[in-house]
Design goal:
Layout lengths: L9 E4 L3 H12 L4 E5 L3 H8 L6 E3 L2 H6 L3 E4 L3 H9 L8 E4 L10 H5 L3 E7 L6 H7 L4 E5 L2 H13 L3 E4 L5 H28 L4 H26 L4 H4 L2 H14 L4 H18 L4 H13 L3
Parallel strand pairs: 1-2, 1-4, 2-3, 4-5, 5-6, 7-8
Antiparallel strand pairs: 6-7
Helix pairs in contact: 1-6, 8-9, 11-13, 12-13
The protein binds NADP nicotinamide-adenine-dinucleotide phosphate.
Length: 294
């Protein structure tokens, strides 16, 4: 089989939000997306109907038979059984989009001569529409060797993404960085918005007030980087303000105190690095924050 290229026919198994986003983005950039299969045939039909030249098929095997590179975009737990249930042709490409799984989920396919890759969008995708629009500027974590590595790098660039190459042993750390920046940051936003309920304003209003700050923080991080984007009482060394925060949390929202303390302590080195917080003041803040943990 010829090396993979932008002309390689693409199949997609798993017509969910990532499979759909990727298939649409690839199709929009001229990749021949020719076949889609899913657990539910109607999901495959619905995705294929958006892509001229693409047909819905009843099984992963049929989608694989029709294409040169197969993206397995099922839920993580289904990747291995789905891939292992397919008969692969030597030289055929098989790619998953999981940030948590490594390439060993393709052990059966590789034994039959398939060439394995991983292509993980470091993004929070909740629908095909927002997935497609989020792709430009998104980083794609790539695993794979040789021609697969080159193909996935070229594919990321073609759809407006940023390729980054990963080793299997680094994947859990890479993946959890995305989870912390996505799901866990959302959790922090939820916890912080609910603090507003303690002073009598509902969390929806709190969120409305806080989201523009989140947007500005993203902008500051993007434009000024680290440590330039660091701001607030810690960067200023306002010990009295920090004390007021800790006292308010202890008396009115003690469940938030551990989260606040951890983040406060973790932020001190960046404020020192910025040059706006003296080491002695940082030590004073550290002692104060630690007192509130006892
Ligand atoms: N969503 C994100 O933010 C995100 C970001 C980066 C990477 N990812 C990765 O992308 C992959 C897909 O996630 P997703 O968010 O797109 O999930 P999803 O929307 O739930 O889509 C998964 C699809 O897989 C299909 N499926 C499940 N089991 C199957 C099987 N045994 N055979 C064939 N199809 C099967 C389901 O099809 P039916 O509709 O037919 O039931 C479902 O639509 C995962 O590996 C995930 O880790 C997700």
């Amino acid at each position: 089989m010829a090396p993979f290229s932008r002309k390689s026919t693409i199949g997609c198994v798993g017509a969910g939000v990532v499979g759909g986003s990727l298939a649409v983005a690839l199709w929009q950039h001229g990749y021949p997306v020719v076949a889609v299969a899913s657990r539910t045939f109607s999901s495959a039909q619905s995705l294929a109907s958006r892509l001229a030249g693409c047909i819905p098929l009843a099984s992963g095997q049929e989608a694989a038979d029709a294409s040169e590179v197969v993206f397995i975009t099922t839920s993580d737990d289904a990747i291995e059984p789905v891939a292992s249930g397919i008969s692969w042709r030597p030289g055929q490409g098989v790619v998953h989009c999981s940030g948590a799984a490594s390439l060993d989920v393709f052990h059966q396919a590789v034994r039959q001569g398939a060439v394995a890759g991983a292509f993980h969008p470091l993004q929070a995708i909740s629908s095909v529409e927002n997935g497609v629009s989020s792709i430009p500027g998104t980083t794609f974590g790539i695993e794979g060797d040789g021609e697969m590595r080159a193909f996935l790098k070229d594919t990321a660039l073609a759809i407006g993404g940023r390729p980054v190459f990963l080793n299997a042993e680094d994947k859990p750390l890479y993946h959890l960085s995305g989870v912390m920046m996505g799901g866990l940051l959302t959790t922090m936003a939820a916890v912080v918005a609910e603090l507003w309920e303690v002073f009598g304003i509902d969390r929806a209003e709190g969120l409305k007030a806080l989201v523009p700050m989140m947007r500005q923080v993203s902008y500051n991080l993007e434009s000024s980087g680290l440590p330039g984007a660091v701001a607030g009482p810690y960067a200023r060394g306002d010990v009295g303000t920090v004390r007021k925060h800790l006292e308010a949390l202890r008396s009115r929202a003690p469940h938030v105190l551990p989260l606040y303390r951890e983040l406060a302590l973790a932020g001190l080195p960046f404020a020192i690095e910025k040059g706006t917080l003296k080491s002695e003041t940082a030590e004073e803040i550290r002692d104060l924050v630690e007192q509130f943990g006892r």
